[in-house]
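Annotated sample (chain length 492).
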Amino acid sequence: MKNGMAKSNQQHIDLPRIARQTMIQEGFHPDIPDNVHQEAQKIDETTTIANSTARDLRQLLWSSIDNASSRDLDQIEFVSKQGDDFKVLIGIADVDAFTPKGSAIDEYASENTTSVYTGVRTFPMLPEELSTDKSSLVESEDRLAIVIEMLVSPSGDVTTLDVYRALVRNQAKLAYERIGSWFENNGPAPDEVSRVQNLEEQLHLQFEAAQYLGEARKKRGALRLQTDQASPVVDENYQILDLATDERNSARDLIENFMVAANGAMAEFLDKIGVASLRRVVKTPENWPRIQEIANELNDNLPATPDALALSEFLERRRAADPDRFPDLSLAIVKLLGPGDYVVRIPGQDSDGHFGLAVHRYTHSTAPNRRYADLIIQRLLKSSASGKASPYTVSELEQIANHCNDRESAARKVERKMRKVAAAVFMANRIGGEFKAIVTGVTPKGTFARIVKPPVDGMVVKREHGLKVGQKIQVKLLSTDPERGFIDFAAV
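Output written by the structure step:
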């Protein structure tokens, strides 16, 4: 298929319009008001930084690793050796410094509570004057940050040392794909690494510390899932050029391990100073019997009571035995575990942990440009550090948690709908084609299958009787309806 042919059939599909309409249908406010933009434009970050009493840590060799296209940079990292241990510093963008509670920016952010990434258009929680500039940890600029300081042992144990405000400078904006490829292929360092003195050595320290964290997480039973959700690759005219999946690599694992450790450390620190705060929890799954059934169907077994380590080991066995179907197994497990929720943690009271991450204490604090809950954590931390009363009552925190849960659920619906729309547009030129597929669902609503390449989901509307979940089949593409995100197959 030539891109020119794809574009000719896409001209009548206004993807940004569909994305905006879907946002509105799910209760979002997709258009940032003028007064919010005006407030953001008036912010003088230079004066704010100059008047700050934050520690000056600009001399450290900070760097960030994110998607190549990301501009809303929330975190940077630095690691040093402390004997056999590693001192890990995670710098988080100090968004609260520019977004006071009750400001127009804060009011807008509190409505949507999250940035929504549709693939064809991003709907940011904060105006881009902030999220991609003044409060983003952009390369070669002085920025304010909240630093989470941890000690990581070779066994992967984490000791929270301190959390404090600092002045930082990102020395290198790096991308997952290039850094991951470099880590895994052991070749020469990419130009963006070699041009910064001592950065290659620094990244190897980060990689080593993250490996220790990852091994410890694996032993605890953290789940390594792979759902292979395809997102559209678009040009400047919003024409879909391809469908791409984010491949796991060493750089993504590094950041994941650091962020899980940092969010756990922040939760522990908030407990230590006695602050009521927001926690991120994934409860022990009520659907464990069905997870057991899936294991039995694959000639494996799981214990009668929920066990994160046993589930993790089962998943690793399946990853090795059948890598082609592992994404679909992962998707089934994700659905049965259920989504995470925000809850209020009151000091001294027991609370649920995060089953999927196999941690007892966990919060969201590492993405304040993108998530409102993370911004709330910054305010709670700062008020306690300055000896002031909490800016939120427990009742207000509960309302915020419930609203964040509602908006996060709505964001998943928007993103899922737009993946289907993009897939329907992309596949419109392939009607009549045949593809290898895997049956992903047999329900009263219909039988569903996923094409192996590209990973596109659709309904099997002909010759679907007798198909079973997990069965490998050949399908023929019958039709697509981009406006509704429908794709219909026939089993061949």
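Annotation: The mean pLDDT is 92.
Annotation: The radius of gyration is 23 Å.
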